[in-house]
């Protein structure tokens, strides 16, 4: 006769095994050397600034020329290989920060560039000079992407100037924190929506009729659109909307052979954040990421090249590519 298993006794034995394993881990923890202070990760072609960052607050809309600690946008170790040869790209918010770095690499990859910007004229001229140093042409168009008619006109000017349009980078953004939800005014909320959502919608709708098969749209999302941010409720909402817009429009444009993707940056050292946060807060910018530092714009720009180039990403559409300095792992 088969002996009946005593499951209660077996469970006790398993619990004893748990305790034994726990004791082994406890001994290992005690013998572990003391942890060194966390340092910022440096895995790039050159060393990037670490917190504390520049103690400076900028007036809106935030001009890169006024930043004491200048963002790194020139990517001197990046070598072009004709990934965008003879293409034409519009980059909104291309006067500074991520937009400037993208303009430089697009030019290095062979594209002529139109920079759409608000009123940061000196920043735009500086970007134009950098594009021209790469041997490409650059058109500057100031205006507000929240204005539908302006977006239509900007696209028209670009096509008239260069004869075509292959890439649209939607990158313009308005960001302003509020510490208390009750203080988020309708005017503030409306400005964020108009710039970050309406602006992307207007530019895409104006650009698509001029795009040929193989063209691409690259939107700038954000880690806040994935994770949220308690002080950037309206901004995070728009970035989550941009991610959904990217996935939806990417599927919608498959019959036209036009790809749509997004880059979702984490903290990046651009004029956007010093124009939002106060001096005491901006010095710690990026310190909370696993890499313990903010990205520099030139570290983001290759992702835009990748998603814009038909040689690199022809089978990718509707995707959101996070470039956020690592995950915490819970």
Structural description of this entry:
- It is a single chain.
- The chain is an alpha/beta fold and 330 residues long.
- The chain has a single domain, classed as NAD(P)-binding Rossmann-like Domain (Rossmann fold).
- 40% of the residues lie in helices and 11% in strands.
- The protein contains ten helices and seven strands.
- Strands 3-2-1-4-5-6-7 form a seven-stranded parallel sheet, sandwiched between helices.
- Strand 1, helix 2 and strand 2 form a beta-alpha-beta unit.
- Helix 2 crosses helix 9, helix 4 runs parallel beside helix 5 and helix 5 packs parallel to helix 7.
- The N and C termini lie far apart (51 Å).
- The mean pLDDT is 92.
Q: What labels describe this entry?
A:
11% strand; 10 helices; alpha/beta; Rossmann fold; globular; 330 residues; seven-stranded parallel sheet
Global geometry: globular
The CATH topology turns out to be: Rossmann fold
CATH homologous superfamily (4th level) name: NAD(P)-binding Rossmann-like Domain
Which segments are poorly predicted (pLDDT under 50) over 5 or more consecutive residues? Answer: none
**Percentage of residues in DSSP E strands:** 5-15%
Elements, N to C (H/E): HEHEHEHEHEHHEHHHE
Helix content: 25-40%
Number of strands: 7
The figure for the number of domains is 1
Number of helices: 10
Largest sheet: 7 strands, parallel
Derived structural class? alpha/beta
């Amino acid at each position: 006769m088969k002996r009946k298993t005593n499951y209660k006794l077996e469970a006790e034995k398993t619990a004893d095994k748990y305790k034994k394993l726990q004791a082994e881990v406890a001994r290992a923890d005690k013998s572990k050397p003391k942890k060194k202070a966390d340092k910022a990760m440096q895995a790039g072609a050159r060393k990037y600034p670490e917190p504390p960052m520049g103690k400076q607050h900028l007036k809106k809309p935030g001009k890169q020329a006024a930043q004491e600690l200048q963002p790194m946008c020139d990517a001197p170790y990046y070598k072009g290989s004709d990934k965008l040869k003879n293409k034409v790209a519009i980059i909104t918010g291309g006067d500074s920060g991520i937009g400037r770095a993208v303009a430089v690499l697009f030019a290095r990859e062979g594209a002529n560039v139109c920079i759409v910007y608000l009123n940061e004229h000196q920043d735009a001229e500086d970007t134009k000079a950098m594009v021209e140093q790469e041997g490409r042409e650059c058109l500057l168009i100031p205006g507000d992407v929240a204005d539908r008619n302006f977006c239509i006109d900007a696209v028209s000017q670009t096509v008239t100037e260069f004869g075509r349009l292959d890439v649209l980078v939607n990158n313009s953004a308005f960001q302003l924190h509020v510490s208390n939800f009750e203080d988020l005014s309708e005017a503030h909320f409306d400005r964020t929506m108009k710039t970050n959502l309406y602006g992307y919608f207007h530019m895409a709708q104006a650009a698509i009729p001029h795009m040929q098969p193989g063209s691409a749209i690259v939107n700038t999302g954000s880690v806040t659109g994935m994770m949220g941010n308690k002080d950037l409720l309206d901004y995070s909402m728009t970035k989550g909307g941009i991610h959904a817009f990217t996935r939806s429009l990417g599927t919608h444009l498959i019959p036209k052979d036009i790809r749509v993707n997004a880059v979702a940056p984490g903290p990046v050292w651009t004029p956007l954040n010093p124009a939002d946060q106060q001096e005491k807060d901006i010095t710690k910018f990026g310190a909370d990421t696993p890499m313990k530092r903010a990205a520099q714009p030139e570290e983001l720009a290759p992702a835009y090249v990748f998603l814009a180039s038909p040689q690199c990403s022809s089978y990718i559409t509707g995707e959101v590519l996070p470039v956020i300095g690592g995950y915490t792992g819970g």
